[in-house]
Amino acid sequence: MIPGEAPREDVLHASEDLKKEAHISSFENFKELYVKSVESPDEFWGDVAKDFFWKTKHTGLFLDYNFDVTKGKIFVKCMEGATTNICYNLLDRNVYERQLGDRVAFYWEGNEPGDEKTVTYRELLEQVCKFSNVLKSQGVKKGDRVSIYMPMVIELVVAMLACARIGAVHSIVFAGFSAESLCERIIDSQCSLLITADGFYRGDKLISLKVIADEALQKCQDKSVVVGRCIMLKHLSKEEEEASSRPGSLSPPAKRSCPGLQQEKQAERVRKGRPVPKVPWDPEVDVCWHTLMENASAECEPVWCESEDPLFILYTSGSTGKPKGVLHTISGYMLYTATTFKLVFDYHPDDVYWCTADIGWITGHSYITYGPLANGATSVLFEGLPTYPDVSRMWQIVDKYKVSKFYTAPTAIRLLMKYGTEPVHKCKRSSLKVLGTVGEPINPEAWQWYYSVVGEKRCPIVDTFWQTETTLPFFGVVPAILNESSEELEGPSEGYLVFKQPWPGVMRTIYGNHERFETTYFKKFPGYYVTGDGCRRDKDGYYWITGRIDDMLNVSGHLLSTAEVESALVEHEAVAEAAVVGTPHPVKGESLYCFVTLTDGINYTAALEAQLRRQVREKIGAIATPDYIQNAPGLPKTRSGKIMRRVLRKIASNERDLGDVSTLADSAVIEQLFENRRCTAM
Ligand code: WTA
After folding, report:
1. What integer pLDDT is reported at residue 526 of this predicted model?
2. Per the domain annotation, does 295 fall within a domain?
3. How far is CA 383 from CA 260, 404, 493, in A?
4. pTM
């Protein structure tokens, strides 16, 4: 609070009990540490680094960087000269130095209630060592890229940490993405190996992952990119039933039952009419996870890596439509995720922590795998859906594992709000201490519901602003708000959210395209990292993210670019032109509203609309399925031919006040577009 101002009535305070045990117990304490983190980063992060194992110590500055394109190449280097291994720090250090071998690393909760598994730090280390040896046996070496396309299972964590152990670079592709998207990401990152699973259930729906993965590899091949190996985990299938759907091919060489599922469960699934998928199998390419693991040694010396060696690539949407392979490096990311996890969630050793994000997103990378494991924490890893088998599922899981720190997305909260308080009240939730939200701006109604109904006004809510590209504004992070003329605004203001200096966990480059990295984040306002978000600072100095101000959409917390959806639409021969905008949606935050202009002579029919919808799903994935498609014989354009998206946004949300349209070439199209509006529910 600003000194001398009257206290705000809408400010809520954490309980004395929580404050007593908190790592950062007061606002004063926070401010002191914050100043230290930005003024003496060497000292601040040096203290953090003491908890970790370094094979060799760093020399020189803790952070060295250039954030100003006018002065040369943009770079960030953290702890140059140090060598370490992040997997060693997450597992070996916890098992051997900290004696946490018997501590549960993950409680895995499957899609079906009753499907569960527990893995301790010792067991995780053993599996990771074995799988590291498997990777080596498949020819994977330090620096090689490995593509991972898996459901939310413990083996996904095993696969990523095994890559990290041998210095390979993982590129995890969210299992909701299509074959086309997977193919594009495999090609861009030049992966030599793909790791996948037979399939999984999302609620009632079977996702035949191996079939999609094979399609992706075929598409790669069509583009002359050959990925020679695919390791498949049997998550759903048990030993006998893999009959191939490809004529003449063989089943996986399975001699043992799949550890993912006991026989009775399997039988039950078949009774419920939920068969396991038929798995296509090509013995030239495919290898079985379980067979390889059986023969692998549990001893694997970590590969000692440089601080700035790559750790992973994670793709995020880019405004040109081509996804960007965001690259993170080892030491800075390790310290940053470990510290944000510990301090934002106020982690203590008796906590049970649950982040509901998918590991395929940056939140999952940082707050299911790296941050919690670096702290020796116990987490829940959930495969299923918040609404399956019923809308109490989340709270049942909270009670079952006595979750104390719970982290989810506004879209999930809005979804559950629709069902009222009863499904929440059915469960006790007495273990909850801190709640978190991430991924998109949270609207006040959702915040209030989360706070009052879920947390019963006991639990503070931490909101972490997060990007695949950056991490949350935290110790070491210096935000500013700029206006269009790149002037820093003071006091209460609204404008572009930028960062003035790097922090250890900031992205380092776009894989294979450093120039795009500089253009996207540093060109608009030289000297600053530009997030692409709008932001408002209130009179107390709090930052409120107002949402994207570039051509990006945030649908259920997933960032999409209008350009990538448009290009998926125009690939259809019936479509001459497409323009996609976001329109407010009560649950998803934003929904996709697509305007399409058809090729001359083609009629707009329901069948065509269904085809277009399917086409976008196939090109990108289900998250990008258009909510509305409107036939638009004409689009509002300027005289120079630029589509006026601002006007389309208004049409999509049925706002008649269009503002200044004097640059419009043909104003007659506007009335026609309003008449043909598709979305009536606004
Ligand atoms: C948005 C998602 C408001 C923001 C985890 C950012 C948020 C984009 C918040 C990154 C938040 C994320 N409040 N907006 N707490 N967290 N965003 O890379 O627009 O998929 O730029 O990572 O999500 O999306 P990404």
Report:
1. 96
2. yes
3. 12, 19, 42
4. 0.91
CATH number at residue 637: 3.30.300.30
**How far does residue 360's CA lie from ligand 1's centre (Å)?**
15
- Among residues 305, 330, 354, the one where a domain terminates is 305
Q: Which of 467, 507, 548, 623 has the most ligand 1 atoms within 8 A of CB, as the residue to mutate?
A: 467
The pick from 477, 559, 560, 620 for probing ligand 1's pocket by mutation, whose C-beta has the most ligand atoms within 8 angstroms, reads 559
Beta strands in 240-308 (DSSP E): 286-288, 305-306
What would the two tokens of residue 104 be?
């549960």
- Closest atom of ligand 1 relative to the 470 alpha carbon: 18
From the CA of 463, give the closest atom in ligand 1: 15
**Domain membership flag for residue 130:** no
Q: Is residue 390 part of a domain?
A: no
Distance 518 CA to ligand 1 centre (A): 20
The token duo for 545 is 């993210």
Does the residue 213 lie in any domain?
yes
Question: Could you tell me the CATH number of the domain that includes residue 156?
Answer: 3.40.50.280
Residue whose Cα lies nearest atom 1 of ligand 1: it is 440
Question: Which H, E and C letters describe 59-98, residue by residue?
Answer: CCCCEEEECCHHHCCCEEEECCCCEECHHHHHHHHHHHHC
Phi, psi angles (nearest 5°) of residue 440: -165, 165
Residue 266's pLDDT is what?
Answer: 60
User: How far apart, in Å, are the Cα atoms of 243 and each of 201, 237, 263, 278?
Assistant: 19, 11, 18, 6
Q: In whole angstroms, give the CA distance from residue 578 to residue 564.
A: 11
What is the C-alpha separation between 109 and 107, in angstroms, rounded?
Answer: 6
Give the distance from CA 647 to its chain's centroid.
Answer: 31
Residue 629 pairs with which residues in a beta bridge? 594
Take atom 2 of ligand 1 and give the residue whose Cα is closest. Answer: 439
Q: 499 phi and psi, to 5 degrees?
A: -120, 140
> Can you give the pLDDT at residue 84?
98
Among protein residues, the one with the nearest Cα to ligand 1's atom 5 is 439
Taking the C-alpha atoms of residue 281 and residue 208, their distance in angstroms, rounded to an integer, is 13
Print the domain residue range for 261: 140-305
Report how far residue 468's alpha carbon sits from residue 474's, in angstroms, rounded to the nearest whole number.
Answer: 15
Q: What is the mean pLDDT of each run of 10 residues along the chain (682 residues)?
A: 49 89 92 92 94 95 95 97 98 98 98 96 98 98 98 98 98 96 97 97 94 97 96 77 38 41 59 76 96 97 98 91 94 97 97 97 97 98 97 98 97 94 98 96 93 97 86 84 95 95 95 97 96 92 88 90 92 94 93 95 96 96 95 89 88 90 85 85 47
CA 75 – CA 61 distance, rounded (Å): 14
What's the sign of the alpha-carbon dihedral 364, 299, 311, 323? Answer: negative
Cis bond before residue 389 (omega within 30° of 0): yes
- Which residues have CB under 6 Å of ligand 1? 316, 361-363, 438-441, 463-468, 531-533, 545, 547-548, 554, 559
**Final residue before a domain boundary, out of 284, 305, 326:** 305
Nearest CA to ligand 1 atom 14: 440
Ligand 1 centre to CA of 365 (Å) is 15
Work out how many domains the chain is built from and give that number: 2
Q: Relative to the CA of 552, which ligand 1 atom is closest?
A: 19
Residue 656: DSSP 8-state: -
18-26 long-range contacts, CB within 8 A, separation 24+: 18/346, 18/433, 18/434, 18/460, 21/346, 21/348, 22/346, 23/342, 23/343, 23/346, 23/347, 24/343, 24/346
